[in-house]
Give the backbone structure.
Amino acid sequence: MTELSDRRSAYLLGHSALERRRLLIQASYVRPWTVRFLRRAGLREGMSVLDIGSGLGDVSFIAAEIVGPGGQVVGLEREPVAVQAARHRAEAGGYAGTVRFENADLTDFDTDQRFDALVGRFVLQYLPDPAGALKRLAGFVRPGGIVVMHDMDVSNPDVSFPTCRIWNDCYALLGALFRSRGIAPDFGRHLTRVFLDAGLPWPDVDSGAMTGGRPGSAVFTWLGSAVQAVEPLLVQAGVALPEGVAVDDSLSAELERAVQRSRSMVLGNTHYGAWARLGYLGTE
Ligand SMILES: C[S@@+](CC[C@H](N)C(=O)[O-])C[C@H]1O[C@@H](n2cnc3c(N)ncnc32)[C@H](O)[C@@H]1O
C-alpha cells in the first residue's frame, strides 16, 4: 500500500472515547438526512440490508426501523471496540432481532448472501479505492436491489452570515484535517462519479445543509464536540488552532455566544445522498 492509502485505511478520526461521544452527538443531527436518503432510495419493510462501516450502529438502527421485524440488517465494521458498542446498543435499543454486527474489513469481506440493499454513511472516503470498494460491495446486492450512500461536504469556506469569525475558523479546521490526510473534504459531491466509476447506474442525488444559529440550536454542540474530538489529530497534523479559542468543554457555549453577538445564520456540513437501483442484467 502507498503511504496515502495507509493513512486513509486507518480511520481518520480514530476510536477514542471523545470520538465515540462525537459520533453519538453527530448521529442525532445527521439522522433525519439518513432517514430521508434511505427512504427516497426505496428502502422498504421486509428488506435485507448490508450496512458498510457500521461504526456504533446508527445507520443499521435506522435501516432496522425502516425494514421492520420482517427485515434483516447486517452491519460490517473493522474496529472490534465499535462492534462491541454497537452490539450493546442493539440489545439495549431492542434491535437485536433484526440487526447483526460483524467484525469484518470491507476490503476482503465475503459472503454468499445477496442483499436487497447496500447502505453506507461516511465510510467510502476512508477506503483507499472508494469506487473499487463500492463495485465489489455492490456485488453482494441482488439484481434489482438498491445501493445508497450518504456522505458530506465540509469544504464550504463561507458558513456564516453575517460572518462570525470563530464559527468560520472552527469549521475550517474540519476541512483542514481531511486535507492533511489526503481525504477529500467535499467527498459528498464526488458520489455521482464514484457510482459511475464503480460501474453502477447514474445515481439520483439529494442534498441539504445543517443550518442554525438560534439560541439553543443543535449546531453549536455539533461543531464544538467535533473540534474537541479532533483537536489531538489537528495538533499532530500541524494544523494551527484559531488564536484565543479554548478547545475544551466550553467551546460549544463560546460558539453560541459569538453567534448571538454577530446575529448570524450558520451552516454545518452539507449532506449528500446518492442512490441507484441495480439492473437485472449486470449492474446497468
Ligand atoms: C465515520 S465512521 C461512520 C460510522 C457509521 N457509518 C455512521 O455513520 O455512524 C466510519 C466507520 O467506518 C469504519 N471503517 C473504515 N474503514 C473500514 C474498513 N476497511 N472495513 C470496515 N470498516 C471500516 C471505521 O472503523 C468507522 O467506524
Q: What stands out?
A: The chain has a mean pLDDT of 91. The beta strands are 48-52, 72-77, 99-103, 115-121, 141-153, 160-161, 204-212, 265-277. The pocket of S-adenosylmethionine is lined by residues 11, 23, 27, 53-56, 58-59, 76-79, 82, 105-107, 121-123, 126-127 (CB under 6 Å). The CA atoms of residues 114 and 267 lie 39 Å apart.
